[in-house]
């Protein structure tokens, strides 16, 4: 395994606004060994939980979630932004820093009682992950854990998930915003 996956994360200063240090996972995704190692580390955490489904949050959560689902031999379900899924959907509105957004998934795709793992590339404030967990619970799913490649602990996302009773783990952490 690559000893330090953090070396494969590119930092882009002042994106999307001044003062933000954007942690770009696409450089890790482009590295075959790094992607394999990250997926293996996520699988090591996920395997003992024996989930029924892996649920990935748009957009980079699709990449990591699908890789994890493949590794574990489980199905994958995308949680998307409003209007991106064809057919009948269920959704949840949630508050952003400057407004609101909506997450959706296909109606009936997550059966009642399903044991799911929620996956995304990065957790910052936790708003999107908390909304996704709430949406899954509204469908009758049990959210076993939320898994992330990167945590920005200074922004409190893990604490927000914990406050909602959702266990969470990240492979890497970066200080600051």
- CATH architectural category: 3-Layer(aba) Sandwich
> What separation lies between the terminal Cα atoms?
28 Å
> Would you give the CATH topology?
Rossmann fold
Name the assembly state: single chain
Please give the largest β-sheet: 7 strands, mixed
Strand order of the largest sheet: 5-6-4-3-7-8-9
Average of pLDDT: 95
CATH class: Alpha Beta
Proportion in β-strands: 25-35%
Order of secondary-structure elements: EEHHEHEEEEHEHE
The class by helix and strand makeup works out as alpha/beta
Radius of gyration (CA) equals 15 Å
Q: Got a strand count? A: 9
Question: Quick gist of this model?
Answer:
The chain has 177 residues and is α/β, with parallel strands linked by helices. The protein has one domain: Rossmann fold (3-Layer(aba) Sandwich), CATH 3.40.50.
